[in-house]
Amino acid sequence: MTQPNVSQPAQPASQRSTQQPAPAAKSSRLAIPDLISIGIFTALYFVCVCVATLVSTLVAGAGTIFLPAVAALICGPVFMLSVARVGKFGGITVMGVVIGLFLFVSGHFALSFVASVVFPLAGDLIARIGNYRNRVTILIGYVVFCYGLTGPILPLWFMKDAYVASLEARGKSAAYINDLFSQISVGSFFVAMVAILVCGLIGGWFGQRILKKHFVKAGIA
Amino acid sequence: MTDVPVGRSGPRAGLRLDPRAKLYLLLLANLLLFFHVDTRGEAIMVALFLLPLFAAGRWRNGLRLAVLYFALLGLGLWSDAVTLDGAGGGSGGSLISMMDGGANVGDGTAAAWATVGHVAGLLSVGIRMMMPCLITGAYAFTTTSISEFVCAMRRMRVPEMIVIPCMVVIRFFPTIAHDYRQIRNAMALRGIAAGRFALVRHPVQSLEFIIVPLLMNATFVSRDLSVAALTKGLGIAGEHTCMTVIRMRWFDWATMAVCTAPMALAIGGVL
Amino acid sequence: MSEPSSTMSPRSGETSGTIPSRAASSPSAPIITISDTSFQYTHDDTGVGAANPTVADFASGNATSPADLALSHVNLVIRPGETVMLCGQSGCGKTTVTRLVNGLIPNFFHGPLTGTQFVCGLGGDGANGAENVPIESLVPLVGSVFQNPKTQYFNADTTSELAFPCENIGMPSADIRARVAEVARRFGIEHLLDRSVFTLSGGEKQRLAVAAATMLHPQVIVMDEPTSNLDATAMRDLHNMVAELKRDGVTVVIAEHRLAWCADLIDRYVRFDGGAVAGEYTAAEFGKLLAEQLEAWGLRAIDLAPYRAALQAKTGVAGIVPDGGEMAERTPVGHPLPAHDLNDGLPSEQGTSQPLAIAKTETSSDMPAASSVGPVIDSAGRHPSVASVLADPSEPQTECQSFVIGNVPIIATHDLTVGYRRAFRRDIADITLYGSEIVGLMGRNGAGKSTLVRTLCGLQRPLAGRILLHDAPARPTALTRAGFLVMQDVNYQLFADSVREELLLGLGDADDVIRQPVDVPIAPLNAAQSSSSGAASHGMSVRDGNTDVQPSATPYLHPATLGEQADRVLESLDLLPFAERHPMSLSGGQKQRLAIVSAIMCGKELIVLDEPTSGLDRAHMMQVGALLRGLADRGKAVLVVTHDEELAALWCDRIIDLDREVGA
């Protein structure tokens, strides 16, 4: 609409007149085909997240806190291919925003929207350092991107707060309550965060391996 | 010719709110999560949020959610009773260690019951907290057609950069399901990762076999969709209109007001 | 055809102001001018110039040899109101021309472009760097219909899809609604409105695609192989839509190699070959061309009558039943011979009650049918490109079949009912599939073909009835082990990162010593080899593990390892040079062959192919046919689901027509 960056007509003209092969003259802005690619990879990513939700809840009822970690483990190939195919600033961010939007509309906590904007944006910036070509920066970008999914698990801590509040309301001593939750808050939080880091690295490495093994070889990425 | 019913691909029965009103309800539900409201306020809000679901004719859905909420409420009350009884019993250990082995502590059944009570209480309170979000989310998801959703985004001046991927995501979901079934069939025919537990036994390999064809097909589809979209003018600069008309009507405003008032009171601690 | 554009006044009143008036272009001035244009696809990172994924681009020039020009010095003039067909083999450049017309070249498909192109008064000189036409300005002028009905939708519901172009040019809501209703009424697709696109059949999707392309009342409609996935009914619907467009004076450009479906509407044919215009013909001139001439150009037949006649003859014939003793019981009951439908040229199928006569008719049906329908069919057997590829479906082979086949059918069904619990249910007349036989499964869309083959392959449970595998009742898992389905979209079936790995997948390492040789890959199959009873034992060796091959066959040593075995099978299907390539970098036809090879490696006995020739030109269709014959000669039972009347008539031994059995 009012965004000039989505209107494509301006840039191909220069491309054609010089008759350069496309990549050289390619605009750094997201064009319609890029947005469509992003949409498709986002859909796949979203499906992976749903699978991760399923897996993490199946493994243990309280395993929901490992949702981002499980997602990080399996979403690597999707992310890596989308970076390879789009390779422009904004791609990763848009992916995060759209995921956040869908999470929010489907009744997830609003903070998950914030998280899935901030972390992907940071990941996008990191991947841009290597111009979306450098494997290391993309991998780090992926790990950061994965923290975008911490949104859906944040309510777990809210739940704890709510329960603590309800216990307090019934006159339990603060010491008792603290005792009860000392481990659940600090311990599980760190475990969950470290798990994302580790799983993100493994998943990202796996994604890059798949990318090289299949998509680069087939001439698609 | 204008009486041809167009743009109502969603469920047609009943009264439905404007997508923007639904969004407002979602935000309200989230606020409720932020501020801890006591059980009474929560119950009132849940009842209010359930109303539009019934108004839209989603009886079964609404009833199911209502039953779930009351079951949780009951669980919570039971948990209150149990944990009050065993007030002193559980002290000394954290919840985690109690979960690990409430029984091996050997304090007897009281402690075990207290543990169960705490877990139940946590579950009840936790899931009950999520219920407003779940209800409004279910309402928004099941009663909004895609064209309404897109139209609402455009009316709210969401950049095309976001709108287009959203449209594609919705368009592509059924394709993923179809692709997945095809791939599983192909794997069965080839005897790759066949059998019920193969996915569990060889998770990495299975993931590769499933995700690579999915991604391959995705790149092909993205090419074809780009072609289709470009030839139909998705890249045209200037405002894109919507065939579907969305309007804020009196009952949209009314619903928003009715839901806001008790919420404000509850947060303010008046209620 | 060259009707002055003013005759379509009924609609022009409703045309919105944003759309350039059609009256602006004078009726005599060309609406599309392409002069001295050359183009070459670049393999850029959008992946669009790279190996084309669709089967249609089967071995096309731009997929395999990037150095080739997609178009070289093409001159083409199209006048308003003309209906022009661009024809030629795959990769001849006809699709590239449609992309020039709708602006996808150079806006989406990049590459060096020279020459001048004017479409509807817009255009420029590609070579001199003049202002090029952005695709956006062509949107209201040119409507496009593409090949694949599944992927040319941007919206998930039909009404939104129709409204989509109007929304994009910013029409007000009420106007869009009026336009949608008008177009739906015009093409009689009101019943398709407000539905999920995913519930439509292929034909309905394609009708919707044409309707969506006309939403902005364009002056030109280009169609890129619109019929490649359609059945006869859907093609008739499409034909009527094109007729409607033609009546309204819209210029229609169709790139196709199926010529028959709209032959009466075409004003002019332009034949492409190797990226250049090889000839232009008026409809009258083209009609006079001999069938052999079309064949030699790789075009499909313009007159399908002889093929239909041959099909009739093959339909409903019982399986080849080798020995008389058991036949009476085994003759499928649900196959009444529709004698009234049969072609006069055939021996009038005397004695349908005597199975032996049926068998006889079947084995010899190739010849009488061929002679009765003239040179078209007859030439099939000795089609040059066919004979060299694999096998020769000529008489000696057909005759030997009756000896080769064992008594026991590979698959037989009894009172089968297929379907899904509620959505769909269909009774299937009993079917028997023998080895060494190509059976065509035909019927309109929705007749239950794919449900049936999925059931035969054990991918879904039958609702009722039994399926016998080698005369013993078989569970779905056993059927899945014995059968293989080559899907229409083979991309789902290839998993490995190289062609050789693809074959070894799930079997073991390349160095593994082979335990049970898969059937003998006879490199270039020839009649002498398969006419011996050796072929039968080849078929058996799959099950017996019998490595002892008849001395009469070519001297043949079993490969010691799986890897060697894989190479042999690859070699027999001309895939060995690509052994290290990634399967997805192959052309559509090579992928199809690879999927078949993987089935051979798994030792499958029943091979089902789903629409193997959709979107293929004649030469490639014949290649597929020869490949099927090669499979049958290895003792496989081959079942082909197809709408392709030419393929079925030329290569299938027998046809099962599900439409015809509806009454039974």
Automatic annotation (TrEMBL), chain A:
What InterPro entries has UniProt attached to this entry? CHP02185_IM
Q: Which domain of life is it from?
A: Bacteria
Q: Where are the transmembrane segments?
A: 35-59, 65-84, 96-119, 139-159, 180-206
List all Polar residues biased stretches.
1-21
Asked whether the UniProt record includes Lipid metabolism among its keywords, one would answer no
What keywords would UniProt list here? Membrane, Transmembrane, Transmembrane helix
Keyword presence, Transmembrane: yes
Record region (Disordered): 1-25
Q: What is the protein's name according to its record?
A: ABC transporter permease
UniProtKB/TrEMBL annotation, chain B:
**Where does the UniProt annotation locate this protein?**
Membrane
Query: What InterPro entries does the record point to?
Result: ABC/ECF_trnsptr_transmembrane, ECF_transporter_component
Q: Which UniProt keywords apply?
A: Cell membrane, Membrane, Transmembrane, Transmembrane helix
Membrane-spanning segments: 43-59, 66-84, 129-151, 250-270
Write down any Gene Ontology CC term: plasma membrane
Report whether Transmembrane helix shows up as a keyword of the record.
yes
Membrane association type: Multi-pass membrane protein
Q: Which domain of life is it from?
A: Bacteria
Stored Pfam families? CbiQ
PANTHER family given in the database record? SLL0384 PROTEIN (PTHR34857)
Protein name, UniProt field? Cobalt ABC transporter permease
TrEMBL record, chain C:
PROSITE patterns reported for this sequence:
ABC_TRANSPORTER_1 (PS00211), ABC_TRANSPORTER_2 (PS50893)
Q: Where is this region: Disordered?
A: 1-29, 529-553
Its keywords, alphabetically, are: ATP-binding, Cell membrane, Membrane, Nucleotide-binding, Repeat, Translocase, Transport
> Where this protein primarily resides, as one coarse class?
membrane
- Please give the Gene Ontology molecular function terms for this protein: ATP binding; ATP hydrolysis activity; ATPase-coupled transmembrane transporter activity
Q: Which Pfam families match?
A: ABC_tran
- Where found in the cell? Cell membrane
Compositional bias, Low complexity, is annotated for 18-29
Residues of the ABC transporter domain: 56-299, 411-662
**Topological category with respect to the lipid bilayer:** Peripheral membrane protein
Q: Where is the composition biased (Polar residues)?
A: 1-17
Keyword Repeat carried by entry: yes
Give TM regions. Answer: none
Question: Has the keyword Transcription been applied to this entry?
Answer: no
* Family to which this protein belongs: Belongs to the ABC transporter superfamily.
Protein's job? Probably part of an ABC transporter complex. Responsible for energy coupling to the transport system.
Q: What is this protein called?
A: ABC transporter ATP-binding protein
